[in-house]
Fold these 2 entries.
Entry 1:
Amino acid sequence: MSLSIEPTESALGAVVKGVDMGRVPDPDIIESIETALEQYGVLIFPGQDITPAQQTAFSAALAPLEMTANIDARLDGQPEIFVVGNTGAKPVTFAPKFGNDDLEWHTDHIHRPEPARASLLYAKEIPAEGGDTLFACMYSAYDDLAAEQKAQYGSLTAIHSVAGLRNYLREQSEEEDYDPGRQADMPESVSWPLVRHHPRTGRPALYFGAKVTIGIEGWAEETGLAFIRDLSSHATRPEFVYRHVWRHHDAVLWDNRRVLHAATPFDMTRNKRLMHRTTLRETEPVH
Ligand SMILES: [Fe+2]
């Protein structure tokens, strides 16, 4: 099987053809995917027609899988699948309700001791309009910094907590006590260098989330939050962003080590959006 990889015209993203996710990939296919994932950040595999078991098997060939802490959102019979959407009794959307709300730019599981190194999202049902996923290139955002900013940021340690995510979701949810779930053995916060070097290439990338990052070590809380707000604006400028407009049966794999992502709003009263996510656990040290 030979792969065809066609880059998008954006700062990141490439369309990959010649992969059947219904089969467990050979080692040479895995290596091609890993190389392209680091290079392009986001890989789009159109027209995949896969079952939850096939998605799980394909993902598990790339890395050990992580389950969502939100037990209600695990798929019955295939708990490695995180059901993201508004079709079930308890919607999980991560999308803002209204067009002018803040987007929840983040990298998956940054608040956990073992973050997600990559995630695979598979489109089961898509809205007629909206519900896109935006991806921002953190290599580009870092490269664009001034030399003195690179020197300063390289010495900073950022603090990440599910509390930041919980506050955002609470703002977005009708249910006042909405909780994304936290496993009992998880610490309330974790800290990572703000500038992360990709384990495959050593290339530096900004590593944070707009809501889940709650401060900078050694800084006053307000100063840290203001810094994160400014950094989020810089890092998600349109020239660093690829917008994925979903089509039925798209599967999209992204590199959480060097990409932020955010869902855009859609009319949840008229549209259904249903995605199946598998989450690949980080197996390299973040530091
Ligand atoms: Fe996410």
Entry 2:
Amino acid sequence: MVAEREPSLLERRLVIVTGKGGTGKTTVAAALALAASRAGKRVLLAEVGRAEQLPRLLVPNGEPVGYAGRELLPGLRAMRIDPFDALAEYLTLQVPARRLVNLVFRSRGFRQLMEASPGWRELITLGKVWHLEQLTDADGAPLYDLIVVDAPATGHGVTFLDVPRVVVSAVHAGPLRRHASLVAEMIQDRKRTLLLPVALAEELPARETAALVARLREDVGVAVDRVVVNAVIGAPFPPGLEQLDRDLAALPAETALGSLPPASALAACAAYLASRHALNREYTGEIARATGLPVVPLRYLAGGIGGAAELQILGDALLGEPRPAEAAP
Ligand SMILES: Nc1ncnc2c1ncn2[C@@H]1O[C@H](COP(=O)(O)OP(=O)(O)OP(=O)(O)O)[C@@H](O)[C@H]1O
Ligand SMILES: [Mg+2]
């Protein structure tokens, strides 16, 4: 029997980007969405939460796009999924009396109750993603070829994706169970959905990523076929000068190098770069080994992520073949 080939990144309908805070989720989501739209896909990029970072990243002076969303670039629409907006929309569809929904939403008591209730945000947010995934155009084809979700940071485990499954196992009948099952099915559909973890190549993040991936695959049942390792410092010295840090260190400390700082200062900089490179290389390999998954290393761009030019560099790397552990940079 021939093993079924995993769909490539661009063959998925839904890619959920996740990881610890500050690992580069938003950057990776934007880079992937941009690369996919440039490859001719109709892409929706959904940012979960209140702060809107994506529009500014993708277009100069990008104004917020809000819940309604906006086409930021040809073939690339962005929106922000705020759970309260999604809930209001859902209730308006379910409860015919719109006035009643508005009234409930304006009450402070309702807001306070919802702020304190666990789980509904995740369920309603994923419910909205499900709804977007179901949309079709005039010809009946899916409206979006690819939906990229910039998911919240995984703080305490993976609650964001866990909720539908938990609801299905706890609620035995009724619309809540029905809706949660549809969402859980979408998450567990290996052909449609991919969870894309973003990690940094350092000791603690590497360990946390291995634990996260294990839980996602075992408990949630979502497809995870690669790990993005972001901000990796590549080989710091040009070919032929691989030993530059050691060569500089071997020079007498006060050696004059024209208008450059003394050799000892340059040696310290070179040693720092070489050690960051070695560390990133070691933990990129460690992430691949500990998760049993290929990795997609993304270069650290020293000038920061200013806009589409940097996103394109990262996007090209994201669409490349993931590398097995032994080929880590
Ligand atoms: N490959 C890279 N090279 C250089 N800088 C990067 C790279 N990737 C991300 N950054 C920068 O690192 C910072 C964090 O990235 P980003 O906002 O994408 O992380 P995040 O995981 O979405 O954070 P949060 O958890 O706060 O949502 C940003 O300033 C971003 O520009
Ligand atoms: Mg972010």
